Amino acid sequence: MGTYILKRLLLIIPTLFLILLINFAVIQIAPGGPVEQAIQQAQTFQGMGVSGAETAQSSQSQYQGARGLSADMVEQIKAQYGFDKSAPERFWLMLKGYLTFDFGTSFFKDKPVTQLLYEKMPVTISLGLWSTLLIYLVSIPLGIRKAKQHGLIFDKSTSLLLAVGYAVPSFVFAVLLIVFFAGGSYFQWFPLQGLVSENFSQLSMLDKIKDYFWHMSLPLLSIVLGGFAGLTYLTKYSFMEELNKQYVLAARAKGLTENRVLYGHVFRNAMLIVIAGLPEALVGIFFVGNLFIEIIFNLDGLGLLGFEAIVQRDYPVIFGTLFLFTLLGLILRLVSDVLYQVIDPRINFDARGVK
């Protein structure tokens, strides 16, 4: 196992490099970068009154938004954002900084990217951990009961609920919950946006806890509704597979009760794949499900930060969040593989030559 972990850790380096390189190349050809936006803002303050000669001369500029600005001012703007250097040089400087986790400074927020990530991380972690806990608390008991009553009324009646939850993404549930319960067309039982109220600092500890979960109710419910179906199916069919094995038949033949067979013999083996898949579930919930939920409910987390950075073409923030998401995702997937072997020692990645 040690050899496998070492290989996977070493593989993280070229994987991160290739992902950053591809995204850096794509960003370079994307229109509306920070230089163009800064030039447009400068034009707004300076005014649009330019002579015909100036317009003809500026039409030859690399940036179409530079009309009406002097060449020196354009060069100053390019230098401000680091675009006075060539693309390979900028990419090399970025990689050097990333070796020490220096992601640069945000173009538009005037803060180091590491500080922004540190400020936004608690919101994303809080949302991800609570939603994952709730999904497991709902899916595992539901999956076990469906496995016990496979083909019966309970199993068939809940299958429609699972089909809806599996087909409809979390952000659709979020929109529906806002319409019905957050001041849309019906009720205003929950706040529309934000993680806490404006007077949060003035509340007592108990009231702070109530206020926090009051704001978290709809976002968490959206993620749970959109994410519990897959784990429920996984739990159900994992238990059904174990229930058909010989050791279960032998346990029943000894006269053991059904609950004793289920929780004394089947549970540990059936839960192997469910528990080992927890890191993979965290990857999906943190980096996919949270993104749209944070945007819809205006929760100031990493998802919203990344979205705003893409809209503003804030390249340091874009690459910083991308680097963090990719690194955590690769590490969590490695943890998932390690859990498989810890829970089931029969799995040996080194012996199978897994790369």
UniProtKB/TrEMBL annotation:
Residues 121-336 form the ABC transmembrane type-1 domain. One of its GO terms (cellular component) is plasma membrane. InterPro entries: MetI-like, MetI-like_sf. It is a multi-pass membrane protein. The chain crosses the membrane at residues 9-30, 121-139, 160-182, 212-235, 270-297, 317-336. SUPFAM superfamilies: MetI-like. It is found in: Cell membrane. Keywords: Cell membrane, Membrane, Transmembrane, Transmembrane helix, Transport. One of its GO terms (biological process) is transmembrane transport. The keyword Iron does not apply. It holds the Pfam family BPD_transp_1. PANTHER family: INNER MEMBRANE ABC TRANSPORTER, INNER MEMBRANE ABC TRANSPORTER PERMEASE PROTEIN YEJB. Belongs to the binding-protein-dependent transport system permease family. This is Microcin C ABC transporter permease YejB. It comes from Acinetobacter halotolerans. The lineage of its organism: Bacteria, Pseudomonadati, Pseudomonadota, Gammaproteobacteria, Moraxellales.
